[in-house]
């Protein structure tokens, strides 16, 4: 399956996606709406793309001015797509890191206290892993955003006084919930 980077430095360039049903690349329409809503937050940002699949969200952020993106993906076929996409676009290790692990495993074994300006969490729709998603809140810098992609049928848990929902958007069966960490 092929799709493209929407805008920015790599705008119009094709991306590769696995030919399986284990990933669900976000549609171009939803990605475009998402990035339009984040217009002032991307330039210079350190981005974390969790459950990265094809890496489209992190790559789109890099294309629009983010300085660094970390991709966390457990599926080896999807990891190959991410690496192939980064290589095709000429995005090197100074701008990108691919973590080969489940998000939950990576969170429990991290050896750094690095925080991010923007986090994308796009877990499999059949296994939303809310307990893992909730742990991602701790990786947000003060006043930073996390965007969770999920189905509309699911409740979005919040058990943190530091994190607030600042927006909810629906695009057919895709729903985006925006969380902000207090300053």
Would you write up a description of this structure?
The protein is α/β, with parallel strands linked by helices. The protein has helices at about 30-35, 55-65, 75-90, 105-110, 130-135, and strands spanning about 1-5, 15, 45-50, 70-75, 95-100, 115-120, 140-150, 165-170, 175-180. The protein has one domain (about 1-180): Vaccinia Virus protein VP39 (Rossmann fold). The strands form two sheets. Strands 5-4-3-6-7-9-8 form a seven-stranded mixed beta sheet, with helices on one face. A two-stranded antiparallel ribbon has the order 1-2. It has five helices and nine strands. The radius of gyration is 15 Å and the shape is globular. Helices cover about 25% and strands about 30% of the residues. The model has no long low-confidence stretch (mean pLDDT about 90). The protein starts with a strand and ends with a strand.
Specify the structural class. alpha/beta
Largest sheet: 7 strands, mixed
Name of the level-1 CATH class = Alpha Beta
Beta-strand portion reads: 25-35%
**Assigned CATH architecture:** 3-Layer(aba) Sandwich
Radius of gyration: 15 Å
Q: Distance N terminus to C terminus?
A: 41 Å
- Quick check: average pLDDT? 89
Work out the helix count. 5
Q: Order of SSEs, N→C?
A: EEHEHEHEHEHEEE
The CATH topology comes to Rossmann fold
Question: What tags apply to this protein structure?
Answer:
183 residues; Rossmann fold; two-stranded antiparallel ribbon; alpha/beta; 5 helices; 7-stranded mixed beta sheet; globular
């Amino acid at each position: 399956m092929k799709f493209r980077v929407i805008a920015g430095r790599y705008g119009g360039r094709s991306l590769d996606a696995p030919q399986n049903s284990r990933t669900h690349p976000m549609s171009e329409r939803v990605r475009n709406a998402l990035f339009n809503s984040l217009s002032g937050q991307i330039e210079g940002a350190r981005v974390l793309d969790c459950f990265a699949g094809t890496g489209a969200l992190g790559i789109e952020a890099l294309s629009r001015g983010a300085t660094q993106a970390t991709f966390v993906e457990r599926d080896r076929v999807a990891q190959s797509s991410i690496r192939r996409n980064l290589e095709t676009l000429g995005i090197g290790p100074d701008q990108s890191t691919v973590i080969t692990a489940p998000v939950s495993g990576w969170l429990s074994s991290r050896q750094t206290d690095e925080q991010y300006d923007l986090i994308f969490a796009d877990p499999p729709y059949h296994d939303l892993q809310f307990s893992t998603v909730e742990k991602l809140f701790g990786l947000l810098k003060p006043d930073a955003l996390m965007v969770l992609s999920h189905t509309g049928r699911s409740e979005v848990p919040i058990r943190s006084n530091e994190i607030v929902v600042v927006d909810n958007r629906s695009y057919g069966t895709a729903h985006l919930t925006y969380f902000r960490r207090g300053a």
